[in-house]
Predict the structure.
Amino acid sequence: MAAPRWTVPTLDDGETHRQAYQLLGPAWRSSAPSVISTGTGFDVVQAPQDYAAAALDRMRTLGTPVGAVYAEGDNWRFFVPPGSGTLPWSAPALCLSGPALLAPARAARGPGPDLRWITRGEPCGQLLWTPPTVLWAALAALAPPAPAPVTHTPATRPADLS
């Protein structure tokens, strides 16, 4: 399997650090939740809060630049480059690619709202994508082990009572 070639979109002046503004447009600055289309400019990797928070902490400890992350209920969603679904995401992580999701309002932060930003990207709130291979490794390291296969032994017949 060939590795995908992710490129960071650039603005007319060549600035790659303003990726979020280019990919999300008005939704990035909106004061209300906005519908965003996934699958073209970005995908989203969703994981339960416990795994996602631990992965985010691990990536920050390693010095990995972390893109925008938002929560919807008990699930956190990381923005990743389009085509990230080709990585072997294991449960409980799920790569979402199309058609659309609801993104939080710009100021929706903290534990209160059901739809809220965890981080709007580093540095300076302008990096949208988290590197998918690093996110995949962090989530895979935290995923619960696969259940052991169940083996059945042949049933024994009760002894004849004659």
Summary: Strands lie at 34-37, 43-48, 68-72, 75-80, 94-96, 100-103, 115-120. The first strand starts at residue 34 and ends at 37.
